[in-house]
Specification:
Elements: H1 2-25, E1 56-69, E2 80-93, E3 97-112, E4 117-131, E5 136-150, E6 156-170, E7 175-186, E8 197-209
Antiparallel strand pairs: 1-2, 1-8, 2-3, 3-4, 4-5, 5-6, 6-7, 7-8
Length: 210
């Protein structure tokens, strides 16, 4: 009799545990599943402007327009005409700053009527200071110039100075296109005291870089 009572008590304790175990195995009691953390989104770095390497020798040609201004010239309009020539130089790229030197030579068909004078040629020795803006390089330039004129009384060579602005565009590693505007000053032209001439030139340029 005691054994039966003991068995009944044990059954009453085991039954709830068995029922709970069955519910757990059947999925009735499941543990919470943690949601995975979102993957980090990669942020692309901001583009960095890279300069070109302007260092090296170059040579090419130019074609443009020139105009004279002088109190000694009494033409109704300021004498003007075409200019065309060649140039050669060297640039050294320091990173954002470009230093350079150049020589160029232009022939012209500029003529004045009074006094009857022809501007035969202009030669220049230039110093250049540019900014490396990638494919573009704006620059300032200045130096000395020599103009050759013919006609009475302005027949001879005259030394002077000039300054100006330019812009170069590196189309490829070997081809540079650009433009330049220069303001020249010549005093006592052809050794004639008091005859001073200013000249403005505008030219388009093409250079091959070595």
């Amino acid at each position: 009799m005691k054994t039966t009572t003991k068995f009944a008590r044990t059954s009453m304790l085991v039954a709830p545990l068995a029922l709970a175990a069955g519910m757990a195995s059947a999925g009735g009691m499941t543990e919470p599943v943690a949601e995975p953390a979102p993957a980090p989104v990669a942020v692309a770095p901001a583009p960095v402007m890279m300069g070109n390497d302007w260092t090296g020798f170059y040579a090419g040609g130019q074609l443009g327009y020139g105009q004279l201004d002088s109190d000694a010239i009494t033409d109704s309009d300021d004498p003007n005409g075409a200019i065309y020539g060649v140039h050669a130089g060297y640039n050294y790229d320091l990173g954002s700053i470009v230093l350079g030197g150049e020589v160029d030579f232009d022939l012209t068909n500029i003529e004045a009527d009074a006094p009857a004078t022809e501007v035969d040629s202009v030669a220049r020795l230039k110093a250049k200071l540019g900014y490396d803006a990638g494919q573009f390089m704006p620059y300032v330039t200045a130096g000395v110039a020599r103009v050759e004129t013919s006609g009475t009384p302005l027949d001879g060579d005259t030394d002077g100075s000039f300054a100006g602005l330019g812009l170069s565009y590196m189309m490829s590693d070997s081809l540079i296109l650009g433009g330049e505007v220069l303001q020249h000053q010549f005093e006592d032209v052809a050794d004639n005291d008091g005859i001073d001439v200013d000249a403005t030139t505008l030219s388009l340029r093409a250079s091959f870089k070595f």
